[in-house]
Design goal:
Oligomer: heterodimer
CATH superfamily of the largest domain in chain B: P-loop containing nucleotide triphosphate hydrolases
Number of helices of chain B: 9
Structural class of chain A: mainly alpha
Order of helices and strands of chain A: HHHHHHHHHHHH
Largest sheet of chain A: none
Number of strands of chain A: 0
CATH architecture of the largest domain in chain B: 3-Layer(aba) Sandwich
Largest sheet of chain B: 6 strands, mixed
CATH superfamily of chain A: MetI-like
Number of helices of chain A: 12
Number of domains of chain A: 1
Strand content of chain B: 25-35%
Helix content of chain A: over 70%
Order of helices and strands of chain B: EEEHEEEHHHEHEHEEHHEEEHEEEEEEE
Number of strands of chain B: 20
Radius of gyration of chain A: 23 Å
Strand order of the largest sheet of chain B: 6-7-8-3-9-10
Bound molecules: adenosine-5'-triphosphate, magnesium ion
CATH topology of chain A: MetI-like fold
Number of domains of chain B: 2
Chain lengths: 285, 368
């Protein structure tokens, strides 16, 4: 009874749109089209999987997740470990690292467009030239098929690591100091304490972080939209980007709906897989 | 195997709290030393300094023939049982017991052998594959003991290891700890705020109050001849009655102020009499509750305030009948045999055993 409002909310804002997407995915709806509305079964799905842009988008999302999730989680962990100390001014550092999170993604993307500016005066080009002692030749990152996706990965890392750092930091601070004291007395050095106390105690936090990062990786859109428009040659396109393009630019609503259903199923599958892995490990460890 | 020595140890926390002042204490090889005292007395601090968990502010700590001031906890070869046990929650009991041995890089078969021996000794064998959260409080306590024991360290440290257990279990495990410690003969520093635990467990007891060592000695010595009124009142349950006293004008009798008691010196044992003769001004007299008895020497009329009957004995709080103001300050606690209960307000005659009188100067330090 008490959960009624929550259930209603869930129905209205989550289940209904999703069902609508599923229903639309079986139609041929296209805004402004002279053709009559028809039920076409799995035709839309057959078409999108035959579309090289869409399969490239799926591949890009997968690659993005495979690179960004481990890197970003590791980066967040390292930052959190560095910032989990009682030093003067540590709050300032914590705030600094968290700042990218509160910047709007669009702003972040614009700033990184400037950083990736082509020619020797672009910040990234200049930096790489400096650290490679002049061996680096300037590239136009966002228009280079090999460099565009890594450039977007870097932007996302920079933007997202701070948030996870805060979550990991909270997890670190919830570990009882007594466990470290016991470990020290039992003869564990710093590295062993990290391995035998910190990591196992952070388990649930890390599972959460990995799960959220994975989901965010599959919903990648803003950076792509602003920085590369999916290009060059679909090098940075993503499922979300393709879906939005289809539904809003080309007004192929049914096609966009089918794509978002695929995205939903993929995300669901991955979350379920991760949870299963996590549970198994809990039983074994 | 090694003794422990605190040499003029000071500890001031960064916020300025002075937790220990000039602590000098030596614990013999294989001895069980109990640190006891009220909350905030500095017991845990003394233990943490010995473990190396907090830096020392002044003085030296020695383990065996080595000054450990600069040694990290890892290199002190000590083991500790924490109040909340601090078991590794993600490890099974077996893993918990193995942990210190793995850190020592002991071989696999030696590790297994030691873990199995320790588990058998503590009755943990059937629990080896469980996690700490699947154990009862008493079982967790045993695992914590086991984790400390497997290593066969130079020194055991225990910080109120029984305080989370119920009374019956506490008595049982207390006896087990005493037995194990004697068998293993490992130097042990045991912290408690429970004076019963201290009395029953320690080879010697060290009483700490407000960061200062009050007295060290075997339990019976501390009980019989407390160095000051703090120790006198802290040990024993209830503690010693402390009364202001003086000699009568003619120096023939001892007057316990505001209790209406006047005891002719002739009735007191020789030692008391001699000591009392030297006292000019006011001083303090201490009396254990068991020093009172209904018919003994000169008796005084007392009014019963409360009675706590424990079956075989009763603790009677009394107020001298002569003290009409009452007010509770002059209440004395007497331990009387037997179970028959007086009613509150009833008058009884009490005498006292001069043998058990203790004299303290005005500062509260024992005289004679
Ligand atoms: N980390 C700390 N920072 C500042 N002051 C502290 C710290 N730890 C303890 N103290 C202070 O030092 C004094 C001694 O504390 P300690 O924990 O040694 O007492 P204790 O005898 O173990 O008491 P209890 O029986 O309550 O455990 C107390 O006044 C306490 O407030
Ligand atoms: Mg304490």
């Amino acid at each position: 009874m008490i959960s009624m409002p929550a259930l209603l909310g869930l129905l209205a804002f989550v289940v209904a749109p999703f069902l609508l997407a599923v229903v639309l995915g079986f139609s041929n709806l296209r805004l402004g089209s002279p053709l009559p509305l028809e039920w076409v079964g799995f035709e839309q799905y057959r078409r999108i999987f035959a579309d090289p842009s869409f399969t490239r988008a799926l591949f890009n999302n997968l690659l993005f997740a495979l690179v960004v999730v481990p890197l970003q989680t590791a980066l967040a962990l390292v930052l959190a470990l560095l910032l989990n100390r009682r030093l003067r001014g540590i709050a300032l550092f914590r705030t600094l690292f968290f700042m990218p999170v509160v910047f709007p993604l669009s702003l972040v993307a614009v700033v990184w467009i400037l950083i990736f500016a082509p020619g020797p005066n672009g910040t990234m080009n200049a930096f790489l030239e400096l650290v490679s002692l002049g061996a680096w030749t300037p590239h136009d990152f966002l228009r280079d098929t090999r460099l565009a996706l890594p450039a977007i990965m870097l932007t996302s890392l920079w933007q997202g690591a701070g948030f996870q750092m805060v979550i990991v930091l909270a997890g670190l601070q919830a570990i009882p100091a007594e466990l470290y004291e016991a470990a020290m007395i039992d003869g564990a050095g710093r590295w062993q304490q990290f391995w035998h106390v910190t990591l196992p105690q952070l388990r649930n936090t890390m599972i959460f972080v990995v799960l959220v990062t994975t989901i965010l990786a599959f919903r990648l859109f803003d950076q792509v939209q602003i920085m590369t428009q999916g290009g060059p040659h679909d090098a940075t396109t993503t499922v979300m980007f393709e879906a939005v393009e289809a539904a809003f630019t080309r007004q192929q609503v049914a096609r966009g709906a089918a794509m978002s259903v695929v995205l939903f199923v993929v995300v669901l599958l991955i979350s379920w897989l991760q949870r299963r892995l996590a549970r198994q490990e809990r039983e074994v460890a | 195997m090694a003794g422990v020595e605190y040499r003029h140890v000071d500890k001031t926390y960064p916020d300025g709290t002075r937790a220990l002042s000039n602590l000098c204490l030596s614990v013999g090889d294989g001895e069980l030393m109990v640190l006891v005292g009220p909350s905030g007395g500095g017991k845990s601090t003394a233990l943490r300094l010995l473990a190396g968990l907090d830096p020392i502010s002044g003085g030296e700590i020695w383990i065996g023939d080595e000054c450990v001031n600069a040694l990290s906890p890892q290199r002190r070869d000590i083991a500790m049982v924490f109040q909340n046990y601090a078991l590794y929650p993600h490890m099974t009991v077996r893993r918990n017991l193995e942990f210190p041995l793995r850190m020592m890089r002991l071989g696999r078969s030696a590790t297994a052998a030691r873990v199995n021996d320790t588990a058998a000794l503590l009755g943990l064998t059937p629990l080896l594959e469980r996690r700490p959260r699947e154990l009862s409080g008493g079982q967790r306590q045993r695992v914590a003991m086991g984790r400390a024991m497997v290593r066969q360290p130079r020194v055991f440290l225990m910080d109120e290891p029984l305080s989370n257990l119920d009374a019956a279990l506490r008595t049982q495990i207390r006896a087990e700890i005493a037995g194990l410690q004697r068998r293993l003969a490992i130097t042990t520093v045991y912290v408690t705020h429970d004076q019963v635990e201290a009395m029953t467990l320690g080879d010697r007891i060290a009483v700490l109050n407000a960061g200062r060592l009050q007295q060290v000695g075997p339990p019976q010595v501390l009980y019989d001849r407390p160095a000051n009124t703090f120790v006198a009142e802290f040990l024993g349950n209830p503690g010693m009655n402390i009364l202001a006293a003086g000699l009568s004008r003619d120096r023939r009798s001892l007057q316990l102020r505001s209790s209406g008691w006047e005891i002719p010196l002739a009735e007191l044992p020789q030692r008391c009499r001699e000591l009392a003769q030297h006292l000019a001004g006011p001083f303090l007299v201490g009396l254990r509750p068991e020093a009172f008895s209904p018919r003994l020497g000169t008796t005084t009329e007392m009014i019963v305030e409360t009675v706590e009957s424990l079956g075989h004995e009763r603790l009677v709080t009394v107020r001298p009948a002569a003290d009409t103001k009452g007010g509770g300050q002059t209440s004395l606690v007497a331990r009387l045999r037997g179970g028959q209960a007086e009613g509150a307000g009833q008058k009884i005659e009490l005498g006292l055993d001069g043998e058990q009188l203790r004299f303290f100067d005005e500062q509260g330090d024992l005289m004679g």
